[in-house]
Every structure is written in C-alpha cells, then in structure tokens.
Amino acid sequence: MHVAKTIEEMKELRNSIPSGKKVGFVPTMGYLHEGHLSLLRKARKENDVVILSIFVNPIQFGPNEDLDKYPRDFERDEKLAKEEGTDIIFYPTPEQMYPENYSSYVITEGLDRHLCGAKRPGHFKGVMTVVLKLFNITKPHNTYFGQKDIQQARIIEQMIKDFNLDINFHICPIVREEDGLAMSSRNVYLSKEERKQAIALYKGIQKGKELFTNGERNAEIIKKEVEEVVKSFNLAKIDYVEIVDYTTMAPVKTLGDKSVLALAVYFGKTRLIDNTILE
Amino acid sequence: MHVAKTIEEMKELRNSIPSGKKVGFVPTMGYLHEGHLSLLRKARKENDVVILSIFVNPIQFGPNEDLDKYPRDFERDEKLAKEEGTDIIFYPTPEQMYPENYSSYVITEGLDRHLCGAKRPGHFKGVMTVVLKLFNITKPHNTYFGQKDIQQARIIEQMIKDFNLDINFHICPIVREEDGLAMSSRNVYLSKEERKQAIALYKGIQKGKELFTNGERNAEIIKKEVEEVVKSFNLAKIDYVEIVDYTTMAPVKTLGDKSVLALAVYFGKTRLIDNTILE
To answer: What ipTM does the predicted assembly reach?
Structure first.
C-alpha cells in the first residue's frame, strides 16, 4: 500500500496505473469506522485499484464548528485501510489542497436549500470543491459515498452528472451499531449517557418507516410522530426533522415515489444525522 | 472534420483518439474572427488533434444583455474552422448542456470583484461552469484563450490550477483590425460612425503604454490620461478604465511587476473591451 502525501505523488501513482484497470475511489475525512470500511470493501470488489483519501477538509467546516477537535488517527486508519486491501491512501495537507491565491469553488443552486445545507451555510460548497479536486487528482471510474450523509451524496451525484464527469456514483447503505445508532466519526464526542440516548434518531426513523409502510403519505403527520419519538429522549435537541424529495432535496407535503426522512439532532454540542429512503 | 452535436457524440469521438495523441481545445461562442482563428492556428501547430467548441452559453449573459441577438453563423464558422485544420467541432444545444434539474456551478472568490466581474454579476460563474464542462467533455492537453478577455483568461487559468486539471493553459495575443480595434464578434453591432470611433479603446491603450514606457507608475495618473483620450471620442461612454494586478485582478495604486490596463467602453448599446499587459 502506498501513501501519497502530495498531489504530485498521487498523480504520479495514478498515471502509473495501466489504462485498462478500473479505479475505485473512497473519499473520507479519516477516523475510519465500519461505514467507511463497507465502502472500501465494495470498492475492492468492483475495481482493480482502490484509492482512499483521508483529508479533514477545512473549508467545509463553519467558523463555530468542530474542525479543530475533529478526531484524527492516521496510524489506525492506515492499518484498517491496509486490511481492506486499499492500494493507495491519498493524505494531503490543507496547504497542498488550498495554496496561496486559491479562489475557485463549486456550488449547488437548489440542492442545498434545505436540511444540512440550510443549517450549515457554505458546508456543501466546501464538500463539492474538495470532492471535485479529489476526483481530478485520482481520476476514478467508480466512487463510493455513504447514505448517512444523504444530501452530500445527492449533491455529488448531481455534480458528476452536471459537470459531465465519467465517474460511476455508488451510494452505500448506512452501517449501524448494534442498537441502531448510525456509525459516525463524531460518535466519539458523546458522553456515556448521550451515547445511550443517541438511538433517538434511529427510533425516530423506525417510527417513520412504520407509518410509511402502513400507508401514511402525509409528511406533516409523519414528521410530528417522529419528532415525538425523538423528544421522548430528554438529552435530544432537534435541529430538523424533514421529509424531502430524493431528486430535488426539497420538502414535500405528500410523500412521492422516492422520499427521504432526514433528521439532525444535537446531544450537547454533538450534532448527529440519520435518514431513511421511503419508496 | 467531424461535427458533434451531442455530448455523447463528442465523448465518443474523444475516446476514439489514441492516448499518445495531444489534444488542443479552443472554446468559443462562434461567429469566428481572426482572433479565434489565431487560437486555432496555434492549437493546430502544437497538437495532433484540434477541437473547437461553438456554444453561445446562455448562463453567462445577464438578463439585460445580448444573448438573443448575439451573432451566429454556423455554416461560415464550419468553413473557417475546416480551413484552419480543425478536426472536431463540438456544437451542442443549451438543452444538452443544461438539462432539467441542472444545479452545479463554478465560482471564483476574488478574481471577479473588479473589471467586468463587477459590471456583469454572474457572468464569470457562467463562463467557469461552461468551460469546466467543456474541459471534462473534450479532455484536452492544451487549451487556448485570447488575451482580449483577460479577466476570463486569468480566471480560467486559476481554475485549472485550483481544480488540479491536467491542462496546459495558453493565453494568446489580441488580434486587431488595421486601425487597432480589437477583433470581437460584437463589432458587428457597431454603426458606421461608432465603428470609426471604436478605436478610442486602442488609442487609450496606446496612451497608457506610452506613459508606462516613459516611467510613469502612478495608476491614477495613467487612468486619468487614458480616460481623457477615450472621452475625446464623442460617442464613447466609459464603463471602466482600470489598472489591476495580473495575478489578483485587483486594482493597484502603483504599477508593479505585471499590471493590466483594462477598458470597457460603450458605443450606444454595444460594450467593447480591450486591455494591455504592462510589464
């Protein structure tokens, strides 16, 4: 396994891959958990060469967000990536990615109006910009994103289409702890009691699914019942409970072909998200 | 010479070019003049395959600008392109480039604050977005832009660097009519009298150059003298006369290593631009 710490190194490694070989790419911010590993496994199965990027992208964090304390452990990540058969880790510095006079960015007009886009201004600009750069540096045939960050996944899927990139986009299922909590690098922030109550999101999602399966299509009714479930956990503070159309990421009144029930909930300063596709 | 009218057709043609061959790309809005042809000639000299795009990009025009009346003549362009040894013309429709639910855009933060960027809000967002798409569709090794649109050229040069694209950027000299007027597709809008007076821009530039050559480095003084020259033509209405740093495209008080004297002047409804690099 190679570790490329500069863009030049990564590009050289990429250019040395014979043109017939399929390249799979998994972009991450590191501190790998089973969710990330499931992406690596799928990439390993479907490609000749697997590239993992580890980069805590400063420009996708807001001024009052957790950039500085975001968990990092490169040695552990390296070991885990190797075990999953990763061929190359791209591990650049912020100075490599955003040198002096850096000034070009990618934005979406529409897909970031709701959910996390509304709550974290500039977040998806940062995500789109870094992912486009990573795509251009690693030139993958396939790329793998987790459904947990569903708005991010949808925005990147659309960017690939809009910018005419020759990349196959794969969205992979949410991986959960035994009690249902969605895997996230941010789960380490939780106190013992918060961790216990963090299943609030999953319980809410289960309630929403149940209502949908039983035929409920009124978004207000579903949202209200989900909110009640979440609120029954006393440490949970709802940031949003929303139902949106998968394609437009805009709220719906009546659930259609492919809707998304999405939640963001604070436990203390820790903000957790979760979602399920209702179709 | 091939003419590709869809993205799929263009991509197929591009993919059929053997990987050892160098591809040069000249993006235009058509209605080709000697300026465009000089780019094609340079591309022809330096590459195995030359691709020209002709696309009047709707998203780079403001609501009160000249999108509808922008001059078009594909048959003439086709003939001229063929004479210059162009291999492929990419000639898509707006619907091909911006299908339903299109939502991803490229912006610059900084380089569009002055000159045309300040006067034409959203213009460079449209330019950057379409050029990135065209790059992704045509995958060139070399691309050629005219110095006449110097802020555009600088922004694209920076985008290539920022987005880690493997494309060599070439900026080519302004081509002028015999009396000094910079070639532009928009020159056809000028009445006979306006056309005569349109040399105001070139005369202003000559004055600026002369002052610079004689050692003047105070931007205010140069700008004032240039403005006086332009104003001596009674049909000329100055939009801006500015001196900026080449790298940042921001105004300077004292001319440095590489400054740009840039002008935008209206003749009736027709807006002409011109510039010179002072170094």
So the answer is: 0.96
